[in-house]
Amino acid sequence: MTLVVTGGAGYVGSVCAQHLLDAGQDVVVVDDLSTGHRDAVPEGARLVVGDVAEVADEVLGAGGVDGVIHCAARSLVGESAVEPAKYWHGNVVTTVRLLDALRRHRVPRLVFSSTAATYGEPESSPITEDAPTRPTNTYGATKLAVDHAIGTYAAASDGEFRAVSLRYFNVAGAHAGTGPALGERHTVETHLIPLVLQVALGRRDEIAIFGDDWPTADGTCVRDYIHVDDLAEAHLLALDLLAGGEVPDGGHLVCNLGNGTGFSVLEVIEACRRVTGHPIPARVAPRRTGDPGVLVASAARARDELGWKPTHTDLDGIVADAWAFARTRVD
Ligand code: UFG
Fold first, then answer.
1. Mutation choice for ligand 1 from 170, 206, 259, CB with most ligand atoms inside 8 A
2. Torsion-angle region of residue 14: left (phi > 0), alpha (psi -120 to 50) or beta?
3. C-alpha torsion sign, points 315, 317, 323, 328
4. Ligand 1 within 6 A of CB of 195
5. Residue 308's pLDDT band (boundaries 50, 70, 90)?
6. CB 126 within 8 A of CB 298
7. Cα 233 to ligand 1 centroid, rounded to whole Å
8. Can you point out the beta strands (E) in 195-251?
9. Of the residues 11, 125, 147, 192, which should be mutated to test ligand 1's pocket, given the most ligand atoms within 8 Å of the CB?
10. Residues 106, 108, 113, 114: is their CA dihedral positive or negative?
11. pLDDT (tens digit, 9 = 90+) per residue, 10-19?
12. Interatomic CA distance for residues 328 and 197, integer angstroms
């Protein structure tokens, strides 16, 4: 049987594809290469270049596909505010068309890349899956809409279609295996750790700290950083759950993926200084619009339902993997 990874030329998708290959699965990657990289597609995976909705019938209609990991998405929070159409079409319309194709071709399993951004500003911490979902940006709103859509397709399928939405917290680190290293290579980089490492590489003069007046221990935002290899492992466990046992919640399980530990922006910068040996100049800047102060996951459900346990819980270790990757890149 074959598993399809959409967005498999991107950061998370390529690592998921690699983990599937390592587990002996046949993998087809679907990616339009708009933000992904052809050379990030792991060796051994077949690449179909195209828009997910446009090529879904061709890929799924060939038969033999018994699951999809759907990572392809628009994922820039700032861009989503100025170009909402790109996000409603690229994330919601495309995924609904994918869901229709999954139904047409009787593909029984879907694992969807959802996000902590579906919760918005949390009322309490750590965040459980039962927390209110009030996204503070268009990106999070589109991912939440897809979560809802998937739930309705699963509920209406009479058990023929089951799905897991994985709500990623802050994905970090890189995969180092037998093939080329796989890590963050965004043309427009907005994420903290790669930006800080660009300072250490001499590509930026300093890192801007978005606010030091948050109600946290050191005044900077707190996030839950999860290693991309742990994240990918959760996708494989989700596929196992969908293949076998009873899927709770009407056949659509929503699971947070985080370590359950928060680190502040200052703690991340300190870790990067320790790992790189670079002084990494930092300057306090205004808060970034739409940023919640603290985002930390309760990962109890992923542990209980998927049997998932993150193994990379040490921030310096996560940063060290990201650093090893960043140093190899020229782009
Ligand atoms: N930050 C800075 N300076 C920077 C970049 C980031 O201080 O130059 C801070 C942010 O304010 C935030 C923290 O570092 O407090 C992490 O920011 P990231 O941009 O790395 O990630 P986010 O927390 O914004 O990630 C969120 C959600 C994810 C979602 C992602 C989409 O937590 O679930 O946005 O990009 F997927």
1. 170
2. alpha
3. negative
4. yes
5. very high
6. yes
7. 23
8. 207-210, 222-223, 225-227
9. 192
10. positive
11. 999 999 999 9
12. 12
139 noted as active-site residue:
yes
User: Counting Cβ atoms within 10 Å, is residue 267 exposed (0-12), middle (13-18) or buried (19+)?
Assistant: middle
Q: Which of 139, 153, 168, 225 is catalytic?
A: 139
Query: Alpha-carbon distance 136 to 321, whole Å?
Result: 31
Structure tokens at 35: 């933000």
Q: 209: Cβ below 6 Å to ligand 1?
A: yes
Amino acid at 8: G
Question: How many A from CA of 171 to the centre of ligand 1?
Answer: 10
| Confidence band, pLDDT 50/70/90 cuts, at residue 296 | very high
pTM for the predicted model, two decimal places:
0.97
- Is residue 331 pLDDT above 60, yes or no? no
Q: What is the mean pLDDT of residues 34-52?
A: 97
Give me the pLDDT at residue 245, please: 67
pLDDT value of residue 187: 83
Nearest CA to ligand 1 atom 24: 291
Cα dihedral across residues 73, 314, 173, 162: positive or negative: negative
**Separation of alpha carbons 167 and 299, rounded Å:** 10
Q: Compute the half-sphere exposure of residue 61: CA atoms within 13 Å on the CB side of its CA.
A: 9
* Cα 192 to ligand 1 centroid, rounded to whole Å: 6
d(CA 223, CA 43): 33
